[in-house]
Amino acid sequence: MPTQTLPSVCPMDCPDTCSLDVEVTDGRISKIRGSRVNPLTDDFICSKVANFTKRVYGKERLLHPMQRVGAKGEGRFQRISWAEAMSIISESCTEIQSCWGGEAILPYSYGGSNGILGQDTSDKVFFAKLGASRLARTVCAMPTTEAAIGMYGKMAGVAFEDYVHSRCIIIWGVNPKASHIHLVPFLKQAKANGAKIITIDPVRNFSARESDIHLPVFPGTDLAVALAMINYWRENKMLDWDFITQHTTGVETLLEKAEAFSLKKAAHIARVEAADIEKIARLYAESEPAVMRAGWGLERNRNGGQAAAAILALPALLGKFGKRGGGYTLSNSGAYRFDGSKMAEADSWNTRTINMNVLGKVLLEEKNPPVKMLFVYNCNPVATVPNQNAIIAGLQREDLFTVVFDQVMTDTAVFADVLLPAVTFLEQHEIKKAYGSYSLHYSAPVIPALGEAKPNEEVFAMLGRAMGWEDEAFQKNTHDYLHNATHAIRGMGREISFEQLQRDKIAFFDFPGQLPIQFVTAFPFTHDGKVHFAPAQLGEHPYEFLDEETNPAYPLAMISPATDKAINSMMAEYMMPELYLEMHPADAAARGLHNNETVRVFNNLGEVVCRLKIQADVRSGVVVMPKGAWRKASKNGKTSTALSPDTLNVVGGGACFNDARVEVARFEKA
What we know:
The protein is of the alpha/beta class. It is built from 21 helices and 29 strands.
């Protein structure tokens, strides 16, 4: 059979949402490459997705339903039929619901590799009818999202293509080279056009030729820096009071908080030079147009939500809107208006809510009722959620019935009682809302589902029917949900039919115009159309800076940023074979450590044994262990989340991964 080239789209948790050309030879995927259906993709994609056949056809792939036959965590299972799996799960649901109540059942999910159909369709109705506990999906993006909603109502952000028009670009708390590669060409073009580029991050991700100023803030101190910039502008009468008066509310609260932060004080807190903060503040204020690219790294600490709000306030205080290439970009998902009721109508679901970041505590502590059943899908909590050791201990409970529905045998899947095989994105129909580019995508299977793998919407409909329920959500098929999805989407400036999307594979916004200009064709979605500097989402003490609780036993701050080797934990099974720790040369020398030797990284929560990389681009006092690694990648079966506290951000209940404090020593074999 000749090779076919079929269109697809990457639905991973990434802003770029790349269009793909997939070559299929004799029914098997032979190559995955970028296409130009989404102009932003421009024919190139990341190595993770280019090598995705290693997941589709890899040895970890789940192909059939299975039931545990060994001890929890051993990973020994026997094959069963789908009918048997449905019977086992439905009977367990009924028994637990009868004995403990529905809240003893906890559905546990996040973004996975799913589009619209992969979440909150038949699954939502299934767990609502059980009266299961609800999950606060807060492991990522919640503090920034809450800040953005409160301040701007998630206004559409500056398009990546428009960065070329900017004269000053601040990249704050994000590494586009690792997790947002299609922004990089526009940064290069902007630099060639004369733009000044500023990076704010504990790690230098850009060379001196690529970035004009790098500010290596200490983790958790971004809020102090942003407030000091605001105070500097106030003192030097640089604020745009015309814009503030006409388009904002609550500025008094923000300025009062900022007044406590001089450049000198913020520099001391952030462990940087005051002159560098001043240089950044003045350059950004005096450049037109200027754009702020705020990332999710800045939220992953105790001050993250307040920092996000202060940073998002910067362009409004200076009136940086109204020009192409001026304003801010966070997530552009707010450009959509999505009516979830068009997908699935659930009965009233008002049970308790459990924050996903405290899974370990929830599984180990006595609750009323305790969690007796855990249903994991679109997520791999052992690798991605704080306090790994507590999660593992909880999953080993003999009285906990665990279902894992996934594509591969993850670190979480090995603890399951029942395993269900999921399709990959190359084997399913899906509609994907981009949250970076302004585009909506449809993808069809390029190969049939491997083994007995099934999509989410089908499996939860099967479970609903196994419970004897006849709700509409359990009678719909994938085709029905595809049509419902296009009816649910609003805010694109044009009507989109499924037939049109199926034909063209992509649909673009009309603001009017394909790309928005903030405060010209895109406006705040707040109730009064204004920017709110002191929204309720910031709590009773907006912009309050929380000092860290230092412990001399653990003097190093550990961050766990995204890398080019994984999206969360997806694809790390083949892209990240070995876990490592990066450390500044001075910190290594102080401990007598050498490049490439094995070290132990430890704190009161756990210990990780891995290889050391001495790296001058990491600021002193900080070490870096990438997020998403699988347990097999380390030398003792533990990864960065074993060292991450499960404390919660005040704004949105987000995870505080970067509040991890550790010590590092040479590993001595017993």
